[in-house]
Amino acid sequence: MPGWFITGTDTGVGKTCFAVALVNALKATGARVAAMKPVASGCERTQAGLRNTDALQLLQAVGINQDYASINPYAFPEPIAPHLAARLQGNEIALEPIVSRAQYLYDHNEYLVVEGVGGWQVPLNETDTVADLAVKLQLPVILVVGMRLGCLNH
Question: pLDDT digits over 84-102, tens only?
Answer without folding.
Answer: 999 999 999 999 999 999 9
